[in-house]
Amino acid sequence: MSGIYLHIPYCKQACNYCDFHFSTTTKGKEDLIQAMHQEIILRNDYLGNHPVETIYFGGGTPSILSISELESLLETIAKNFSIASYPEITLEANPDDLNLEKLNALKSIGINRLSVGIQSFHDNELKMMNRAHQAKDALRCLEQISQLFNNYSIDLIYGMPESTTKSWEENLKMLSAFSIPHLSSYALTVEPKTALQHFVNQGVITLLEEEKVQEQFELLVDFAEENHFIHYELSNFGKEGYFSKNNTAYWLGKSYLGIGPAAHSFNQTERSWNVSNNPQYTKAIQKNTLDIETETLTKKDRFNEYIMTGLRTMWGVSYEKIALEFGERYVTYLKQNAQKHLENHLLYEDNQTLRTTRKGKFLSDGIASDLFWIVG
Known about the structure:
nine-stranded mixed sheet; three-stranded antiparallel sheet
C-alpha cells in the first residue's frame, strides 16, 4: 500500500493557531500548480511498483482550487502511477468553499472522501481562531455533504480558551443530528511564531488549564463510544469501515510521496521534504530539479517512530515486530522502560502487544518519549 499527498499552500486567511506552510495570496498559483504536475512526472518512480491506494489533497486549503485544477492533477497522477482499483481520494475543505454545485462537481471527478475543517460550532470560538466561516456555514455544509457523500470526516478542536464542559458538550451534540462516519479532534496547541502564541504571550488570550483540557478529551471519548465510533488513533474516531486509509497508512509506516512545497515523503528508509517556499519550489521544478532535503533513518530513528505512532493507535506496539525488525535487545529495553507505565495503568500488554489504556491515551506522546531508544 502506498499513497500520494498533494500540499496546496493557499488559504483565504490565516488561522491564528496554524503553523502549516501556506500563503494568503494566490500570486503565482498557476505556475505552482504546473510545477506540481512536473514534480509528479519527475518522481514517478518513487513508490516503485506499489499501487497507489490513497490520494490526499491537503494544505493549506485545497478546496479553493477550481474543479479543473483538481481534475488535471488527478489525471497526471493516473498517467504516471499505478492506481489501485478503488483508491481513497480525499480533499480537505472549509465549509465556506462548499455548496451543492461544487460538491457534485467534486464527486464527478473522483473525489470520494471529504475532510471538513469545522473546528467549532460556536461563533465566538471561530472568531478567536480567525476562521473564514461561521457556525451556520458549518451546519449548511454538513447537511449538503450528507446528501452526496457517504465517506467524510470533520475536524473539531477542544481545549479552547474560555470553553467549558457545557460548551464542548454542545459542540459534540451538534454532531448527533448527522450520521457522521469519521471525526478528527485535536487539542488546541500553541505553535511557535503563530498569532496564537503572540496573543498568549501578550496576555490577550489565556489558555485553558491542562486538567480541563483532559476533561474535554474524556468527554470526547465518551461521546465517541456512545455513538459507535472506534477510537483507532489518539485524535481520530471512525465508524466501522470508515477509518482514514490515508492517515492509517502513515501510522502503520507505509510509503508515501509528497507533492508540492513543504510536502514530506517516506520510502521506508528515507524521509524527505520539499522546500517551504512557493517561488523557490516553482523555480526549481521549472529547471527540472528538486529542492529537497533528505534524512536517512537509522535503526534508532525507525524504532522511535514506531513507538510514537504505535502507541497513538489501537494497534499498539508489537513485540514480535520489534524483534524481527530491530532485535531482541530492543524488546528487552522496551519492556524495562514500560514497566512503570504498566504499574500506573497507563499501558497494558495484550497478546504480545503494548497498548495505551484509556487513561494513558491522552498522555501517549509523553509516554512514548519515555520509551525512546536513546543509547547509541
